[in-house]
Each structure stands twice: as structure tokens, then as C-alpha cells.
Amino acid sequence: MMTKEDSTVFEPQRIAFGDPLVDIHHHVIPPGYLDALARLGMDTSAFPSWAPEESLKVMDRLGIGRAMLSLSSPGVWFGDDSKARSLARACNEYVAGLRKERRNRFGGLAVLPLPDLKGARQELTHALDSLNLDGVILFSNVEGRYVGDPELDALMADLHERKATVLLHPNDVPTTDENAPLYPWAEYPIDLARAWSRLVYRQILVRYPGIRWTLTHAGGVVPFMAERLGKVHYLKKEKPRWGRIILDLARKRDGGLELARGVSYDTVGAANPVTLAALRRFVGPDGIRFGSNFPWDSERSVEASLRFLEGTGRTPLFGSVPGEPERVE
Hints:
The strands form three sheets. Strands 1-2-3-4-7-8-11-12 form an eight-stranded parallel sheet. It has a two-stranded antiparallel sheet with strand order 5-6. It contains twelve helices and twelve strands. The longest helix is centred in the N-terminal third of the chain and has 21 residues, at 81-101. It has one domain: TIM Barrel (Alpha-Beta Barrel), CATH 3.20.20. It is an alpha/beta fold and 329 residues long. The chain has helices spanning 33-39, 52-62, 81-101, 117-130, 153-162, 184-201, 204-207, 222-229, 242-251, 255-261, 273-283, 299-310, and strands at 21-28, 64-71, 106-111, 135-139, 141-142, 145-146, 165-169, 212-215, 235-236, 239-240, 264-266, 288-289.
């Protein structure tokens, strides 16, 4: 029997590392996923090995109470809508199965077969209503179609209506992009900013405020460039929105900057003095979520990051984490 008081497994405010952490950025490699990529001619040799037991072992040793499982880039769409729908369904059902089996340890974020809008909206309904997953992971772009582009407005409306948790994760730039040869660790932080700029410019965050965004990889370059990127908040079709500019000047505020402060950022890539200090100064503890990036980041790397974060002081580091489960009695 569930009561209102039992609506969450973990306390919403984690003050220190003695409390169970929720890892909002923890990846899965479902059975058959690598085979599906190999059949498409993709090189999968760089993928890490993974099994649910490996995640649980790392979580137990490092004091991580629960992990929100999600598929990492490159996702499921490789030019064929039908195959992308099937692969997304298989991945989501696998994650839902793990969530059901170990609900107090695993949550799950659905992958959608974007840029196939119809398929993505159908899979969103199935994933949240039938599979009871906790939210979705969206990639900054899929072959040049970015989150925030006009073609995805209907999906944004769906996510807003559901007050959905969305993890925004970088993806490879299109192969036709002249910058495609850059290494992902160099390009990923930039691509998050490309997606973010579209969200701001097209008023997605204003028109669909119900979406609960978390930007992975500490937001990439978004926090560093938040004020500059936020200037597009004051543009419409490249022309200034003078009413909005004058109103915010009168209020002594920067609306574009406030938009960036109104979302959450995970700690992947933040385990260094400069990035973490900037992130804490920018959004404070309520805007920071713990993320491991396991298994793409090794157990040793995740442990080192945790120890660094643990040593930053006894003040609150992490705020509430969206998508926490109902307690199962």
C-alpha cells in the first residue's frame, strides 16, 4: 500500500554524500543494439562492455542509490524511420524491464526515433504511458535536425503537457559538417550550445515551461556563454524585441540569462575546480544533478569524480532530482 508520504524513494534534498545519490546520466547498451549498429556498417569497437550487474556493482561500491538508465549517442536513427522505430521500441522495453525488476535501483529514460516526428510522438506515449518510464533522453541533433527546430514543436508540446523530464545529451555533428572530424570530447560541448541557442531563440523554454530540462556534461559551453547565447531571447526573425528588452532593463534583469539558470546541469565533466566553481556560482545546488556517464566513463573515472565532488565542502551540492519513483511496498 502506498501513501502520499511514501511517494519517493529518496529524500528530495541530498545534503552530503552520506545520502543515496541518484545518477541521472547512466547509460545502457541493450542486447542486440551493437549488432544492429554493426549491420548498418558502423564500427562499434569503441563501445564499452556493459551489463546491468556491472552498473549495480559500481553503484553499490560508490554509494549511488539509483541510476536513471538511458541510451547514449548515436541513438537509434540512421536514415530509416521504420528501423529506428523498431530499435527505439526494443531499447525502451529493455530499459523498462530493468526498471521493473530493480525499481529501487533503476529508473529509465526513453529514447525516441527522431527526427521521425510521428514515430517519436508515438514512442513517447508508449514509453511513458505503457512502459512507465521516467522521462526521455533527447540528442542535441540527429543528422543536423536540432532540438528546438520548428519541426519538433509538436513533440515539445507533448513533453510540456506531460511535465516530462528531458535529459539533453550531445550527439555527433552531421557527417556533412566541415567540423565533423573533430573529436567528440571537443565537439560535444559546442553542440549542446547549438541546441540550446535554438531553444532560446525559438522561445521553447518560454512557450513550453512544463518541460524539466537537464543538460548533460555540465551544460558544455552553455554556462560559460549563457549571457551571450541568451541575447537571442531578445530577437524575433533577427529583429530586436524592443518591448521585452525595455521591460527587462526596467526590471534590471537578463531574461536570456535567467532561462539558462532555470534548467539543471549534471556533473559529468565538472569534476575540476574551474568548471564546478563556475557551475555552482551560476545555478547553485538546486540546479546541479549528479551524473556518472557510466560505462562510457570507467568505474575508476566515476570514482575519481565522486571523490573530487565529495571534497568540495560540506555545503549542499545537489538539489532535487526529477523522475524519482514511487515507493514499492
